[in-house]
Design brief:
282 residues; alpha+beta; Alpha-Beta Plaits; Pseudouridine synthase; two-stranded antiparallel sheet; 17% helix; 29% strand; globular
Length: 282
């Protein structure tokens, strides 16, 4: 079977080649690109979404569906629009039901790579804060101790830079925007997550002798919420055997970390930048 699934949106004239990370007769794991919805947008049906593209391709008998003899496909968990990485799909309803039990068991099945603003005080820390939809901002989540749903995430500092940190996040629950809101709540907003107070990452803010060529406009090193689903680890829903699925770092992460390692080591330079994010909870 092909190592990629080719999808296209006639409405927007966009095209994707989605790498297959794992596949057997029960499961299909894809390497979701940043900038593609998983589920359809309720407010804008014209926006492409991975599941609609897959289901439309399945109904139309596209080559990738025919060669797999697919009759059913459904996502077992969610990834945000800007998040890249491992997305697990079930090929049967029975597998989906078992996967739903796994994801609802409050165990850290998924590990995310995150670039965040700030300098965490501890190498390992946890955020246990209930989340609920924001009362006045549609599409946003917030910490709500009274009406929120139980939400817990563990964080590990992998590398510390002057004013940024490379983290591994392990969510125990599966709430919308969970990692992003928990990091904002902790005071370390995700890089380029402007919805929750995280500014973009610019080379000019870390390289002291930065010079831009005449007529050129600087682009951020990473311009989407810096969140990547790096690993999924769980028992196989049919065989029970341990299953580990991994996704390589996307190019924007590799580039950002390369320059952080080169120019942003050492003590904090906060106060020297004119667009520092405010590390405050609303």
């Amino acid at each position: 079977m092909s190592a990629v699934i080719k999808l296209s949106s006639p409405a927007t004239k966009e095209f994707w080649e989605i790498p297959v990370l794992f596949e057997d007769e029960h499961l299909l794991a894809l390497d979701k690109p940043a900038g593609l919805l998983v589920a359809p947008d309720r407010h804008d049906e014209a926006r492409p979404s991975l599941m609609k593209l897959l289901l439309d391709g399945l109904a139309a008998g596209k080559p990738w569906a025919r060669e797999r003899n697919l009759t059913y496909i459904s996502n077992a968990h969610r990834l945000d629009y800007e998040t890249s990485g491992v997305l697990l799909l079930a090929k049967t309803k029975a597998a989906l039901i078992t996967l739903a039990d796994f994801f609802g068991a409050e165990k850290p099945l998924r590990h995310y790579l995150v670039l965040a603003w700030g300098r965490p005080l501890e190498a390992n820390f946890e955020v246990d804060a209930k989340l609920a939809p924001h009362p006045v901002k549609p599409g946003q989540m917030g910490v709500n101790p009274l009406e929120g749903k139980k939400s817990r995430t563990e964080f590990t500092v992998l590398e510390q830079f002057s004013d940024w940190a490379l983290l591994r996040a392990a969510p125990f629950t599966d709430r919308p925007h969970q990692i992003r809101v928990h990091l904002k709540h902790a005071g370390y907003p995700v890089v380029a997550d402007e919805l929750y107070g995280g500014k973009k990452l610019w080379l000019s803010r870390m390289k002291r002798d930065f010079r831009l060529k005449p007529g050129r406009e600087e682009r951020p090193l990473i311009s989407r919420a810096a969140l990547h689903a790096e690993e999924l680890s769980l028992p196989h829903p049919v065989t029970g055997e341990p299953l580990v699925i991994q996704s390589e770092w996307p190019k924007d992460f590799r580039v950002a970390v390369k320059y952080l390692r080169q120019y942003a080591l050492g003590p904090s330079r906060r106060g020297l930048q004119d667009d520092e994010p405010e590390f405050t909870e609303e």
